[in-house]
């Protein structure tokens, strides 16, 4: 397990953005059959899913989340030292989508922009990376995470189509010497890389013979085995690394993978249900962005004192990570639906 | 890894009935997965979770795919030391 600690990183605010169009899974019974839909809704816990319209991308969702957050914080564009975009739904193979957001936000040439190709585990990885950059000298960083899994699932595969949704996010991080220390634990098991994969369309198989290979293949059983084994381990290890007990954590912010799996993990770890928020019923599984989305949906916008969070992401890679960090009462938690009308530079 | 907990055959059938949403009266050793509508990917997750929670036993996706009938599930548990008084006909 790779452990890092980042003193002096303040979580200054989180903003999330979801598509305005919402699909009701119960309305999909005609296509997939009433029994199948009922099983997915009752097991995965997904009733409604925000879904992007054609032509709208994760980059667009992240842009609107970022624009609102910068406005709320009154952070001038030239005060950002870096933007880090975690996504597996880029607009193009190249350039990096973060460069487009850099343009749209009117950021300075002195601001670094990079994409990180991770999915469900991406939020703790992004926090760890941004924390290290702050420790190395950056002052302000925007961590963006967004994905549009609904655009790469196979319409014929009800197990994934009825599960996934789309979302974008922006998290403002700044250097503040007296900010409480954050702790990160990061892991990978590359032997499971085929467990969640789009096998075609990349440079290994540029033009796949089978068009289905341009869409997501998921080995649900293998992912389940991985999750129930690895997530409890990393929760325990990150708490130990931070020198904290479970009771010191106000919210365990899980990647919203599947209600059945999340409840199983929470029970296995002995976590009280009220400290493990679930938002799958209204938002589905939007990939790793579900971590910041759960934050804006479940942690009160008006708060007294600091809260301590444990954020955990797990999935495609196979990759998993956890971050223990503090959220002060001044940091805004914002949420909006995508308008497509925000002015771009 | 072997289970530290043991169950009887009837308890296993109850677990299968719950995981596959099938009346327990319909489940016998010789019943195949084609006879059980709920023996699918979601039934697999439910069974894996039940084994993990009640027996501390990992049932892998590959092992589940190999199972063709109820008797295969019982044999699996017997091999892992989790099944007592298995009554082979």
Keyword list:
heterodimer; A: 345 residues; alpha/beta; Peroxisomal Thiolase, Chain A, domain 1; six-stranded mixed sheet; five-stranded mixed sheet; 10 helices; 30% helix; globular; B: 89 residues; mainly alpha; two-stranded parallel ribbon
What is this structure, in a nutshell?
The complex is a heterodimer of chains A (345) and B (89). By secondary structure, chain A is of the alpha/beta class. Chain A has helices spanning 29-32, 34-44, 58-73, 97-104, 122-135, 158-161, 220-242, 259-269, 280-283, 290-298; strands at 2-6, 9-18, 22-24, 48-50, 82-86, 112-116, 140-147, 167-175, 182-188, 196-197, 217-218, 251-254, 307-315, 319-327, 333-337.
How would you describe this protein?
The complex is a heterodimer of chains A (345) and B (89). Chain A has helices spanning 29-32, 34-44, 58-73, 97-104, 122-135, 158-161, 220-242, 259-269, 280-283, 290-298; strands at residues 2-6, 9-18, 22-24, 48-50, 82-86, 112-116, 140-147, 167-175, 182-188, 196-197, 217-218, 251-254, 307-315, 319-327, 333-337. By secondary structure, chain A is α/β, with parallel strands linked by helices. In chain A, the strands form four sheets. Chain A has a six-stranded mixed beta sheet, sandwiched between helices. In chain A, strands 1-9-14-13-12 form a five-stranded mixed beta sheet, sandwiched between helices. In chain A, strands 3-4 form a two-stranded antiparallel ribbon. The mean pLDDT of chain A is 95. Chain B is mainly α. Helices cover 48% and strands 4% of the residues of chain B. In chain B, helix 1 crosses helix 2 (41-55). Chains A and B meet through helix 2, helix 7 and helix 8 of A and helix 2 and helix 3 of B.
